[in-house]
């Protein structure tokens, strides 16, 4: 029975086969059979590859299987070639292959070492070898750390300690510039003219202006003295207040000269019988001017008032020198004396208690006395209280007192001594006195000049540049600003000294007043042997950049400013 059924089914399949291909030509039918066979083979190959990659234990969720109809639709889609495939992202059949054939290339998976997992790390960390290694690294770390710390401490202990800077005040920071007669300083002849030159003075490195006297003071008339009233030919109070504001914006200060009888002939304080009355007037005037913003006062013949009315002088000092909550910045009290011996100047500094005292100490005389006078004052007083000047109010200008040929030499001297250099207006350009000790100041203009006038302007420009260079060095270099004074050499016509501060650059000053060259043999423990010094400034033209300071040649009427590094 079963055999008959199988035969029957085979016969049915045989009978149906011709019916399916009855409309197909014989050649085409053979071709279709071949395509079907190839497709079956391709499908078998793909399935075999997929089975090789798929884990037998992982079975695809039936819900995620594709619908047979969708799969059939995808299989019916033709393969795309060329640019269309690039745009659509579809697979492209390689050229020369038949549609439906797919080449599958399997890349071998690269094995990567992902490190030890947590359990493995814990097992390794607990081994004796790892524990010993860890302790060894820890010991090395702490040994290295303590070694570096100990080395740093040793370096600090062995290094030379830096010295504390001495006490300095604003008047020690740069040159004091005296404009004794406002009417002669500019063509304007008043405070407005001084105001127009504030920028130029700031470029010179001027730290403070000493203005006046400008108050109303009829000659030898104590009763007509009015400290709070400005002489009309000098300007107005509003102009002076504007000048104060402008200088303060530039970091400059203004000192007002309030010498009472500055136009008379009976002395700065009138007659002896009027000193008490004048001192009382001055006390109230000081309060007025400080309220206007003035930063200090200058008074001539301070020894006279200090000796005659000591209690009033003590009151004057207290008003000037004691700061207030409104103006905590220290104000300066400058005294002026005609004394010229170092002993007298030193005694007056002590007895009067002024902050600075200008004198005639450095007026041209025997240069051999300079070294002793300078050292005497330096040894007895803090350098913040020392003032150095050549000329001034009523004395005349530097170029007239020492001669134009020595102008720069004295500029080097004043700028490099320990203390505050004080200059008269015009000393920076070599202004000379003519018929008065208050000559008209010369300012450069844009006007074209010829011949002698052009040469004079070039000389003034060169002199001003030299002055400015010295001023900049003094503020910039600590050795020149606050350094110790070390004497090196002194003779009847030559002087040499050093300015040294802690580990800063050393500066050496050599001056020769003689009209012939001088050779100075300098030997001091602060001057290391075989040291070559750089020439910073020379008053005479020189082509030498470096010199040996141990055997120093200084030209006739020449001053040299040298520097060399700290050698330990």
Describe the structure.
Helix content is 42%, strand content 15%. The protein is α/β, with parallel strands linked by helices and 568 residues long. The protein folds into three domains: 128-158; 176-478, Alpha-Beta Barrel (TIM Barrel); 479-568, Immunoglobulin-like (Sandwich), CATH 2.60.40. Helix 12 (302-308) crosses helix 13, helix 14 (342-352) runs parallel beside helix 15 (368-380) and helix 17 (407-416) runs parallel beside helix 18. It is globular, with a radius of gyration of 50 Å.
Note the topology.
Elements: H1 2-20, H2 26-53, H3 68-76, H4 82-88, H5 118-125, H6 128-158, E1 176-179, H7 182-185, H8 191-195, H9 198-203, E2 208-211, E3 215-216, E4 226-230, H10 237-249, E5 253-257, H11 275-292, E6 296-300, H12 302-308, H13 310-321, E7 332-336, H14 342-352, E8 356-358, H15 368-380, E9 387-389, H16 398-402, H17 407-416, E10 420-424, H18 451-476, H19 478-482, E11 484-490, E12 494-500, E13 506-512, E14 518-521, E15 533-538, E16 546-547, E17 551-554, E18 558-564
Parallel strand pairs: 1-2, 1-10, 2-5, 5-6, 6-7, 7-8, 9-10
Antiparallel strand pairs: 3-4, 11-12, 12-13, 13-18, 14-17, 15-16, 15-18
């Amino acid at each position: 029975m079963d055999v008959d059924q199988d035969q029957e089914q085979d016969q049915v399949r045989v009978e149906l086969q011709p019916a399916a291909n009855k409309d197909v030509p014989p050649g085409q039918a053979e071709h279709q059979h071949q395509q079907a066979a190839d497709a079956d083979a391709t499908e078998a190959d793909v399935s075999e590859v997929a089975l090789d990659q798929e884990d037998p234990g992982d079975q695809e969720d039936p819900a995620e299987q594709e619908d047979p109809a969708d799969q059939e639709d995808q299989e019916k889609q033709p393969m795309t070639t060329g640019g269309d495939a690039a745009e659509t992202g579809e697979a492209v059949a390689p050229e020369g292959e038949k549609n439906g054939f797919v080449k599958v290339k399997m890349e071998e998976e690269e094995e990567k070492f992902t490190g030890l997992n947590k359990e493995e790390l814990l097992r390794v960390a607990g081994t004796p070898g790892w524990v010993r290694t860890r302790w060894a690294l820890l010991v090395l770390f702490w040994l290295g750390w303590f070694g570096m710390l100990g080395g740093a401490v040793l370096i600090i202990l062995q290094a030379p300690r830096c010295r504390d800077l001495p006490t300095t005040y604003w008047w020690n920071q740069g040159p004091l510039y005296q404009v004794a007669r406002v009417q002669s300083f500019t063509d304007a002849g008043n405070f407005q003219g001084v105001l127009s030159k504030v920028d130029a003075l700031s470029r010179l490195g001027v730290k403070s202006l000493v203005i006046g006297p400008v108050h109303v003071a009829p000659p030898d008339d104590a009763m007509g003295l009015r400290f709070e009233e400005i002489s009309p030919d000098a300007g107005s109070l509003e102009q002076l207040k504007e000048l104060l504001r402008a200088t303060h914006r530039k970091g400059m200060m203004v000192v007002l000269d309030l010498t009472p009888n500055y136009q008379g002939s009976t002395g700065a304080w009138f007659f002896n019988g009027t000193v008490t009355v004048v001192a009382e007037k001055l006390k109230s005037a000081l309060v007025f001017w400080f309220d206007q913003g003035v930063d200090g006062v200058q008074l001539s013949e301070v020894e006279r008032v200090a000796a005659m009315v000591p209690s009033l002088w003590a009151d004057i000092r207290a008003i000037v020198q004691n700061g207030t909550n409104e103006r905590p910045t220290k104000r300066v009290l400058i005294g002026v004396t005609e004394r010229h011996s170092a002993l007298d100047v030193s005694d007056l500094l002590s007895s009067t208690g002024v902050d600075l005292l200008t004198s005639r100490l450095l007026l041209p005389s025997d240069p051999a006395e300079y070294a002793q006078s300078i050292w005497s004052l330096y040894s007895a007083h803090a350098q913040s209280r020392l003032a150095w000047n050549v000329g001034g109010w009523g004395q005349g200008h530097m170029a007239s007192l020492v001669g134009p040929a020595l102008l720069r030499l004295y500029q080097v001297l004043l700028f490099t001594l320990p203390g505050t250099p004080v200059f008269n207006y015009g000393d920076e350009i070599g202004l000379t006195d003519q018929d008065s000790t208050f000559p008209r100041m010369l300012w450069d203009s844009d006007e074209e000049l010829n011949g002698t006038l052009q040469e004079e302007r070039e000389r003034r420009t060169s002199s001003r540049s030299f002055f400015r260079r010295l001023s900049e060095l003094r503020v910039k270099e600590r050795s020149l600003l606050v350094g110790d004074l070390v004497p090196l050499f002194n003779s009847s016509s030559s002087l040499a000294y050093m300015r040294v501060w802690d580990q800063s650059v050393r500066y050496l000053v050599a001056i020769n007043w003689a009209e012939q060259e001088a050779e100075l043999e300098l030997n001091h423990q602060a001057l290391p042997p075989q040291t070559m010094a750089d020439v910073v400034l020379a008053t005479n033209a020189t082509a030498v950049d470096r010199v040996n300071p141990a055997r120093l040649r200084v030209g006739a009427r020449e001053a040299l400013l040298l520097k060399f590094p700290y050698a330990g």
